[in-house]
Design goal:
two-stranded antiparallel ribbon, alpha/beta
């Protein structure tokens, strides 16, 4: 009885395990049966294929292959054998994939074969290969050194044979190129046997690989640009042959002249003056009527880049000359009236009017590019330390000022880089102060201009040209001008009588006017300083004759302050600026006011070094009673000196605060103006006080208006 439960329990466990194993086997059979049912047919099929003989499938459509004798055969090309020979066999395959792969391999081998055949047939145009063939033709079989594959060294390597291969006649009257044998493959082609047929010109460019009878102007432009950018002299030579020998004047509907100008610029860029010279002469003779000023200006800059200055002047005077006097009617042109009156004209009048407008526009364009070209010449001379030539070029630029104003051109239209010219002239002046040309007078050349004939500061020549042209009033230009003309400034002394004035060893200019008219602000603007002269909103702060030394010897301030003996000398363009006390609103006693008046009378009469007197008047109100008294005083004293034929200072009227008459003057194109009423009142007052000859300059210390015009008279003191 004790063993019964154990037996029954063991029996139940055994039954459970048996059931579980049976279920597991059943599930495995469900999984394995589909797999075996799938694999067995495949195995049987493979066994059957092994037992059966191979089945030969039909071959795909054959591809054409070119044999060595030039005949085309329908064969398949097999891979190359060890001996390098190619064998052809019929293509067989066991599946579509194999057939497709075989067809792709055959097609690829066909393309490689055709490429290799083309390379073998066409001679390589690599620069090294060209030089190698030339040496072989000349009997020189020496192996040349291999060069690196960059375009700069390619051009240098190619240029070794250029002088012998490509030559121009030195006589300018003969415009034909020297006949040059050109190679195509291993054969030589003679242009003389072409019988007016355009020959094949191979280029290195991939986009424009050759020049022939199908070449267009656009193709030639692309080839020239590519040759210029990559310094490919071989292509420049081939293009020169094509344009100068192969084609005539009617090529590309008369566009050959522009192509010649582009080729001339590219040749100058590659330092090949011979090709450029032929292009310039051919263009001048055959295409003069279609020459554009823009192209001529580009040629001038290219010649300057190659240091052919005389040739640049020749092109300038021939192709960018000034219009003859009376040939263009500048003053009668009005665009609005022209549009309105065209409806009232007949056909002949319209034709004449259109022709006049065309001539006017052409002349304006020529003036613009002539001015820019001359500025390029002057800049080149200044930066190459040739001040004499630079001064002459700037003088040519100054002569154009009058006709530029007549043509109605603005500073934006002309676009002369005045800041670059000023900096170049300042660089020459700096070398001059260092003694770079001190021994030029001892050269013995009587025709050469010496530094003694130069102005006291070379920058003043650029300033004269700036004043002759329309003013652009740019801060960058005037900052460069002030840095060149005002290098050092120092307050010297304040005088209350003639005994307190410094030694009269240089020229000086005086600024006078009523109180609160803006004298100190104008002085700071002209010298590009913020606090040289003391400015204040309270009238009458200037109560003595303040002397400011410009371009005096270095360390002068230490000598004035501490009494030290500082070595050195003042510069040759040194001068004094004198700020006189104001009248009118100054809160001073009547006795002091009378003392100022007496001092000014004595100063104007006895100061021999005084070169210019600037009388400042408010542009908003015109001349006041104090201004009229100053005019009477100046007119009496200076008028008496003129009658006695004595030295007399220049009298200039300065209208200040012109920006107050314009709303938002800083943000507008008009930096300042004066009303007609104020101007009429000023002119009448000047005539009544015998100073009607005085020039009038409109200025503003806020918008920097009129600063270059004032410097025109400041130089009188520097040049004394």
């Amino acid at each position: 009885s004790s063993r019964t439960p154990h037996v029954s329990g063991g029996t139940s466990i055994g039954r459970i395990m048996t059931t579980s194993i049976a279920l597991l086997l059943l599930s495995l059979s469900c999984v394995v049966s589909p797999v075996t049912s799938f694999l067995l047919p495949r195995q049987q099929q493979s066994l059957q294929q092994q037992q059966q003989p191979p089945i030969v499938l039909p071959s795909p459509s054959p591809l054409p292959i070119t044999s060595e004798d030039g005949q085309r055969s329908l064969l398949y090309q097999s891979p190359q054998s060890q001996d390098g020979k190619t064998a052809t066999t019929a293509a067989t395959g066991t599946s579509k994939r194999a057939q497709r792969k075989a067809a792709q391999r055959a097609k690829k081998q066909l393309q490689q074969t055709q490429t290799s055949n083309n390379i073998n047939k066409v001679t390589s145009q690599h620069p090294e290969a060209i030089i190698k063939r030339q040496k072989q033709q000349q009997g020189n079989n020496n192996n040349s050194k291999r060069r690196n594959h960059n375009f700069a060294q390619r051009a240098e390597y190619l240029s070794e044979g250029t002088d012998e291969q490509f030559g121009f006649n030195d006589n300018l009257d003969q415009l034909t190129l020297t006949t040059i044998p050109k190679t195509q493959g291993d054969t030589t082609i003679d242009d003389s046997a072409a019988n007016n047929n355009i020959q094949f010109h191979q280029l290195h460019s991939q986009r424009v690989s050759k020049l022939d009878e199908k070449t267009t102007a656009d193709d030639v432009v692309k080839a020239i640009k590519r040759a210029q950018n990559l310094h490919d002299e071989h292509d420049v030579v081939e293009i020169a042959h094509f344009l100068l020998e192969e084609v005539d004047q009617s090529f590309a509907y008369g566009y050959r002249g522009s192509l010649l100008s582009r080729l001339a610029v590219a040749s100058l860029h590659l330092q090949n003056y011979d090709i450029a010279k032929r292009c310039i002469i051919e263009r001048r003779i055959s295409h003069r009527s279609s020459m554009l000023p823009l192209e001529s200006a580009a040629i001038v800059r290219g010649l300057l880049r190659c240091h052919h200055t005389m040739e640049a002047w020749e092109v300038l005077e021939d192709e960018l000359s000034l219009p003859l006097e009376g040939s263009v009617q500048w003053e009668n042109y009005n665009e609005e009236n022209n549009k309105r009156n065209k409806n009232e004209m007949n056909d002949d009048e319209l034709h004449l009017e259109d022709e006049s407008i065309r001539r006017r526009l052409e002349a304006r364009d020529k003036l613009v590019h002539r001015a820019r070209s001359i500025s390029s010449i002057a800049s080149r001379h200044f930066y190459e330390m040739e001040p004499t030539e630079g001064i002459n070029a700037v003088g040519k630029l100054k002569e154009m000022g009058g006709i530029v104003h007549q043509a109605g051109l603005t500073a934006e239209d002309v676009g002369i880089p005045w800041d670059r010219l000023v900096k170049g002239a300042a660089l020459c002046e700096s070398k001059r102060r260092d003694g770079a040309w001190d021994n030029i007078d001892e050269s013995g050349d009587a025709t050469a201009e010496t530094p003694n004939s130069w102005p006291c500061n070379i920058v003043y020549t650029v300033l004269d040209a700036m004043i002759a042209f329309p003013s652009e009033n740019k801060d960058v230009t005037f900052e460069a001008l002030c840095n060149a003309l005002v290098r050092r400034t120092v307050f010297v002394t304040g005088a209350v009588d003639m005994e307190g004035c410094p030694e009269a060893d240089r020229g000086e200019v005086a600024f006078i006017g009523r109180s609160n008219v803006g004298k100190s602000s104008l002085v700071n603007m002209l010298t590009n300083r913020k606090s040289l002269a003391f400015t204040s909103k309270t009238p009458g702060k200037t109560q003595q004759f303040n002397y400011f030394a410009v371009n005096d010897k270095p360390e002068l301030a230490r000598q004035i302050r501490y009494g030290d003996d500082v070595p050195g000398e003042k510069d040759r363009d040194s001068f004094y600026i004198v700020d006189l006390p104001g009248f009118g609103f100054a809160k001073v006693t009547q006795q002091l006011r009378q003392q100022w008046s007496d001092f000014m009378d004595e100063y104007l009469q006895e100061r021999e070094t005084l070169q210019a007197v600037f009388h400042l008047i408010d542009a908003r109100h015109g001349p006041t009673d104090e201004d009229i008294k100053i005019m009477q005083k100046v007119g009496t004293i200076l008028g008496a000196k003129q009658q006695a034929k004595e030295h007399c200072a220049k009298y200039i009227i300065i209208l200040t605060k012109a920006d107050k008459n314009v709303k938002n003057a800083k943000s507008q194109s008009n930096p300042g103006k004066v009303s007609n009423k104020v101007m009429e009142k000023l002119i009448v007052t000047m005539k009544e006080n015998r100073v009607g000859y005085a020039p009038i300059v409109l200025t503003s210390s806020e918008t920097r208006l009129g600063r270059d015009e004032v410097w025109k008279y400041l130089r009188f003191a520097a040049e004394r």
